[in-house]
Design a protein that fits this description.
Elements (H helix, E strand, L loop, with lengths): L1 E7 L2 E6 L9 E10 L4 H7 L1 H7 L17 E8 L13 E4 L2 E2 L5 H4 L11 E2 L11 E5 L3 E3 L6 H7 L2 H12 L6 E5 L3 H12 L3 E6 L2 H6 L5 E6 L5 H8 L5 E6 L4 H9 L1 E9 L10 H5 L5 E4 L5 H14 L7 E5 L4 H8 L6 E5 L1
Parallel strand pairs: 10-11, 10-13, 11-12, 13-14, 14-15, 16-17
Antiparallel strand pairs: 1-2, 3-4, 3-8, 3-17, 4-5, 5-9, 6-7
Helix pairs in contact: 1-2, 5-6, 5-11
The structure holds zinc ion (2 copies).
The site of one zinc ion has 6 residues, from loops.
Keywords: Metal-binding, Oxidoreductase, Zinc
Protein name: Alcohol dehydrogenase
Organism: Cupriavidus pinatubonensis
Length: about 350
């Protein structure tokens, strides 16, 4: 089969791998959609080894030729011995939860395998991922894809859209809330789309005019270009001087993080989602004196993944619109060169 490797220095390689065979409790998935994620750009630009060194995971990589892609979605092609046929059968449409844990610690038992006490096996990073014709995973990593959803939609839920749903759950958001979303890339747009479907009024902020222009199609009622006006002042104006009750920060960087906090009202709740970098606040003025609640929200659980897909299916949310580019796997070099510009929306490989 074919599999794509991030070689660093903006190079990818489409290599030949042996077709995987499932062992006990495992499944082989025939890939139908494999999403491209913002975090892939780190591997694309710096290579897997350098990226993992930065993340402190270098000693855990299983080979120097790991297949990338951590947003996999497809159909079950083969099952290993011991898999309960009531759980999964050949032909089932599935998403892959790309973190694999020990299955016994408290985090694994609650579906948060990325937090596994013994360290998670991250597919597409430490172990083979979805940019391939086939992918082998434990059956415990599979989540059924609702019939109403496309494979591309499943790939979105497998990382970015699931992360958005996870942040909204952490904020315990409801139709009583107003929400400021900083960063209108695929995760921020998913936050907006899901929150709007929950009845929340959404304000969106970005520094790209193209992303600001697109935001209205994703349920953002007021989209603010932060290069043209001060987003905090704009959001205060839109909320009668009070601020939004919640904010989700998906842009990354010190400035938008501080702005997200300052866009909320007294008792505001803020979820930080974008990874890396710092946050600088005045503890008294920005947090304590305003009774604000600041949360770090890292991805989502397997249970949330299922709930997210079900919410999308039952509400008819058009997650497929997140994808501006679809590619074949043999176009991987072109696909990542285009994605590297970070000007459009999300890309996905379809099989
Ligand atoms: Zn991702
Ligand atoms: Zn565990």
């Amino acid at each position: 089969m074919r599999g794509m490797i991030f070689r660093g220095a903006r190079e990818v390689e489409l290599a030949h791998f042996d077709d995987p065979t499932p062992g006990p409790g495992e499944a082989v998935i025939e890939m139908k959609a494999s999403g491209m994620c913002g975090t892939d750009l780190h591997y694309y630009r710096h290579g897997m080894a350098a990226s993992l060194e930065m993340l402190g995971l270098k000693d855990r990589i299983e080979s120097d030729r790991i297949i990338g892609g951590h947003e996999p979605c497809g159909v079950v092609a083969a099952l290993g011995p011991g898999v309960d046929s009531k759980a999964f059968r050949v032909g089932d449409r599935v998403m892959v939860f790309h973190y694999e844990g020990c299955r016994h610690c408290d985090h694994c038992r609650t579906g948060w395998t990325q937090l596994c006490d013994h360290g998670a096996r991250i597919h597409g990073v430490l172990a083979h991922g979805g940019h391939a014709d086939y992918m082998k995973v434990p059956v415990s990593s599979l989540v059924h894809l609702p019939q109403e959803m496309s494979f591309a939609g499943g790939a979105a839920v497998a990382c970015g859209t699931g992360t958005a749903y996870g942040a909204l759950l952490r904020l315990d958001i409801s139709a009583r809330d107003t929400l400021a979303v900083y960063g209108l890339g695929p995760v921020g747009l998913s936050v907006a789309q899901l929150a709007a479907a929950m009845g929340v009024e959404v304000f969106g902020v970005d520094i790209s005019a193209a992303r600001v222009a697109r935001a209205k199609d994703f349920g953002v009622t007021h989209a603010i270009d932060a290069t043209q006006s001060d987003p905090v002042a704009e959001i205060l104006k839109l909320t009668g001087g009070k601020g939004a009750s919640c904010a989700v920060e998906c842009a990354g960087g010190e400035l938008p993080r501080a702005q997200a906090v300052r866009s909320t009202k007294v008792w505001g709740r803020i979820a930080l989602v974008a990874v890396g970098g710092n946050l600088v606040l005045d503890a008294m003025k920005d947090l304590i004196g305003k009774q604000r609640q600041l949360l770090g929200s890292f991805t989502f659980s397997e249970v949330d993944m299922k709930a997210c897909a079900s919410f999308i299916a039952t509400r008819g949310i058009e997650v497929d619109r997140l994808f501006t580019d679809t590619w074949r796997l043999d176009q991987a070099a072109q696909a990542y060169a285009h994605f590297d510009q970070q000007a459009g929306g999300k890309g996905v490989f379809l099989f």
